[in-house]
Amino acid sequence: MGGKVAVAIAAAAAVLLSCSVAAVMVGRRIKSRSKWRGVVEILKELEEACDTPVGRLRQLVDAMAVEMHAGLASEGGSKLKMLLTFFHHLPNGTEKGTYYALHLGGTYFRILRVHLGGERSYLDVQDVERHPIPSHLMNSTSEVLFNFLAFSLERFIEKEGNGSSSQGVKRELAFTFSFPLKHSSISSGVLIKWTKGFEISEMVGKDVAECLQGALNRRGLDMHVAALVNDTVGALSLGYYHDPDTVVAVVFGTGSNACYLERTDAIIKSQGLLTTSGNMVVNMEWGNFWSSHLPRTSYDIDLDAESSNPNDTGFEKMIAGLYLGDIVRRVILHMSQVSDIFGPTSSLLSEPYVLRTNSVSAMHEDDTHELREVARILKDLGVSEVPLKVRKLVVKICDVVTRRAGRLAAAGIAGILKKIGRDGSGGITSGRSRSEVQMQKRTVVAVEGGLYMNYTMFREYVEEALVEILGEEVSQYVVVKAMEDGSSIGSALLVASLQS
Ligand code: ADP
Ligand code: MG
């Protein structure tokens, strides 16, 4: 008997054991399924919070146009500063000579030289240099920053050698400056505030053209800062040079901003402002646009609170290159905290701005077998060996964030078109006669910036939403033109147009 009983007991124990193993496994699966469910829930919440149906976009179009009016009506009348630039003539193709531009962007600085032969087709862009701005300069002193820029210009000029056409002549320079300025003329303006992570507080209130000219003089450089040009205004100039239907320019780079050609009589806050053309380029500083219709998430709120300029540039923080990567990072971090699908939470993921928007586009547009590029970028963030479905989830996050950005950007553009009566709706009335708005004119929007030029999906979302907002018919009259290096080249053209 003993033997049989022992076997029976052993068998029963084995059954029990296997049952409990199975129970543990099922438990784990349920747990992991519920963790996965938590992540899917976060994704769903994100999608809902970032939703931009065309109705909402139209509300934003209206809000943008209304804010533009308010910003033009009085100083401080809107979050949109609607800054005067004093430029009222744009280059028309007859310019001649050799001109320089120095462009301080948010990530890069560029130096270039253009040679113009007096005909539109004779535009020779020479020696474009582009370098990342050393990060220590962003919170150094104005002296350190401008000495560095002057030094870079000196080296650029040294390379020209003796063969340069401009030898012996004072060199005329455009300073393309992509931060908000209060201009007092074409060639002078004081810094209103920094954006895009720059933090040199003693610069605020200083004339940046004077700072640059001073640094050039100290180095003994025979260069004259002939114009102070917002980067959007540079892009508008290059657009106009090639095509006089260009009346709006938008930059999507590290930051985002727009400018357009406005009638002086619509600039109520500067009554009596007279220009020979009857127009003036207005720098909107649209990064600071705000509306309750903007689809804001908890990630945006946290990003803003932890940024170097909280409660500022709310629109820019949803659409510009500096920020898109960080929104995506925040979503992934949140997911990795509620679930182990990303493995143990990587400490790198908690570091602001480690995930660059360049990497977001690389992941979003990853067409490799099994998303190897996504795996590589996640590995750099300390997240390794995640299964394919998690990599797909990351691609989806990139898509949601970038789609929202592109669609909001399109609403911004349509808002400007509405303000100037080019959106097919007849505009909102202000100093513009009825007969003028009724005829749909061809309108070119010049666009530049690293985000737009290099992130195909972003660009496609902008264009798609613009057609959705304007409708097929009106869209036919609106041409969006990409302008590579437009802000720097166009600024040099502006200086050229001042000489003629
Ligand atoms: P800046 O803002 O200094 O004038 P750019 O206009 O070249 O310079 O914009 C640079 C920014 O554009 C980068 O910081 C990044 O946010 C974005 N960007 C550049 N390349 C890509 C890319 N391949 N994919 C997505 N974003 C990009
Ligand atoms: Mg730029």
Automatic annotation (TrEMBL):
This is Phosphotransferase. It is a single-pass membrane protein. SUPFAM superfamilies: Actin-like ATPase domain. Transmembrane segments: none annotated. InterPro entries: ATPase_NBD, Hexokinase, Hexokinase_C, Hexokinase_N. The keyword Transferase applies. GO terms for biological process: glycolytic process; intracellular glucose homeostasis. PANTHER family: HEXOKINASE, PHOSPHOTRANSFERASE.
